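Notebook, p. 212. Picked up where the previous page left off. The plan for this session was modest: take the two constructs that came back from the sequencing core last week, fold each one, and keep the raw output in the notebook itself so nobody has to go hunting through shared drives later. Recording the first one now, exactly as returned: residue sequence, then the structure token string.
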Amino acid sequence: MTIHPIVVYGEPVLHRVADKVTEFDDELRTLVTDMFETLAASNGVGLAAPQIGVGKQIFVYDADDDYAQVRRRGVFINPVLVGSKVPDSRPHPDHDSEGCLSVPGLDFPLNRSAKVTINGVDETGAVVSLTVEGWFARIMQHEYDHLQGTLYVDRLQDKWKRRWKREQKAEGYNVPGISWLPGTDPDPFGHGEDDEGAE
């Protein structure tokens, strides 16, 4: 098992559509195991393969689903997501805030679909499906976006987009080659084990 560095906004793999997985072999299973290890070390709730520099249609998740009052942990490979209409109102800075392990230390409000259904397969090729609501639906959309080459900051409304651009310049998140190693480098979000993590 290996904890991988998480690449930061500006790395080309984050900004292109990931390739579909076609081989369900030991190499894939090892990658998924490593992704779970990296996710745990990062104190996050979701992690997509492009975030560790692997341009494949894979994401893992491990978080409480407060709406359903269960803990969910799993993997989606080659997923397809369908969501309810995204509100066009102004997102609430407290209730609609998102963070991302590939945009370390920052968070911004963003509207998302309140309910989504996501279908795909796991590392064995078995069909997996979830219909979720609320915060967990946000996680699914965030990770699915990563596989389309989109980060949440790419979706921000104008006010927050301007703030992001200022922060991006200040932090230097506009060039390739930046990464951080969970469990070794300081947690950029200052999370403790009981905190809700970034995606």
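Okay, moving on. Second construct, recorded in the same format:
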Amino acid sequence: MGKRSLIPRGSRQMDMQACPLGSLLRENKKLKGHPSVKRAFYRYLLVMVCICALLSAASVKICTEIRDRILFSHAYILEPDPDFAMPETEGTFIIPPENSANKNAENDVPEFTDREKMLCHVLEILTIALPLFIVCLGIWVTGSLFYSRKLKKPFRLLEQGITQIGQGNLDFSLDYPKQDELGRLCGAFETMRQEIVKNNTELWNMVEERKKLSASVAHDLRTPITVISGYSEYLRRNISKNNCSQEQITEIISYIENAAQRLKAYADSVRNIHMLENLNLEYADTDLSALATEISSALQVIADEGGRQISVISHLPDRSVQLSSVAIFRILENLVKNACCYSKQNFYVKLEIDDNYFTITVMDDGDGFPEKILDGSHLGMGLTICKVLSQKHGGTILFKNGDTIGATVLVRLKIYGTL
């Protein structure tokens, strides 16, 4: 007989119709390289079937031999009689049972004892029951061995991992080295855990950024609120006493209006920051040479309005890449306005490509950043907008001071396209 397939005929025909031959060969090669739980189970089952078949055959044979030995001890054996003379009829020669007292008496057959009858009946039952018992025992042993060797460890690891995640603990690692289906399942679980850790870290960083932003807003709002509150109190105390001239009142009102305008600008900046956090940047093919020329012209206008000298240095190659020009101009606008406020006379902007990143360097000749900006606790509205846009563009922003004077801002924006 040929070898019998372990896959049902219908399933095999379905697979052959659904998949090309090349795909089947590649899948078989992949299964050979990575042991399958199903194939391992079939091997366990095949071995146990062979063992059960041998044990069942041996048990049936032993029971049958014992029963036949009892039966033969109480039966006459009929064989051809060589001394029978008539040629037309075959004669018989009667051999009495071995335990018969009179071996010459043809009708003297010893009867079965009750014990022998009971034993024969039990042996007939065992002939059927023992194979069934061996099959059931084999199924139980196969399942137990397969579970303890193939399923117990990965199931225990997955259960422990689920318990750890349920308790809010992600500081663990699920390591199962085998490359079968359960190994891939454990690997997928570990990937899921790492993604949860990553998302929680990003969420925690977002919460921390929101706290810093709230602290920055509170710090920036304190000054105009103090101005409005102080001058309002001054007017309340002095107008009724006629201690304020019309010119003083007009001047104080202008101070209050300026403070109110700053409050409005801060409120608009906070709204813009929240809008930027939900903004999806649009990337398009951008000619770097044309971009450098446009940047230089736009920044020169901002520097002239701020009464500062600007130098734009471009090391951009003559090619096109995918960038968000809107984000780039928004970042440069805020950085240059900040440099105009805090530089003494000159500052420069350098544009270049570094390891698949579009980099912007802004350096001024001012007194440098205060410590609260360097540690990120208070960036202010403009620098916060630059940070949000940099992160949206897949990049980073770095603030540092020079050795003696000046502040430097380094922005790295990821290029979405081949250089």
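Notes on construct two before I forget. The longest helix spans residues 181-239.
Flagging for discussion at group meeting.
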